[in-house]
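This part of the workshop introduces the protein records we will be handling. An example says more than a description, so a record of this kind follows.
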Amino acid sequence: MSRPSLFGSPLFLGFDHLEQMLDRVQKNADGYPPYNIEQTGDTRLRITLAVAGFSMDDLQITQEDNQLVIRGRQKEDTEGRVFLHRGIAARQFQRAFVLAEGIEVEGAWLDNGLLHVDLRRPLSEARVKTIKIAARGNGTQRTTLGGAPVVGGMAEPLPDGRNGEG
């Protein structure tokens, strides 16, 4: 039995990729390593992961399309060591964050077992676009004040050479 789609409404056109991203993020929600996301400015964000025991060589950050993927893999260093109790495992992880369109990764640094990744979200500009409506087929033909038919949003010239717009 399949689960109902979040974007199953016919009013949501082209959002199927968002549902796929949500599925990927949900599969990635095991809780390790713990992380914070904070707003550090009007257009700035910071992701901080607790990666104690990982060196810079053990960590990898990639941006794959609109996903920020952080991977950690520690090398097994048990040669010559005898553990009486082993409570700190060399555990690998992969944590993915879905980024909105236009978000840029500014940089990352490791400090006292915390990996910080700074992001910048550029301010978006409101876009308004007017779409012209053209008559086709058996639709009624629009005319301008002078009576010239309008074709493809432009007035056709009248037989006497005027453009029919006044």
Helices lie at 16-27. The longest strand covers residues 104-111.
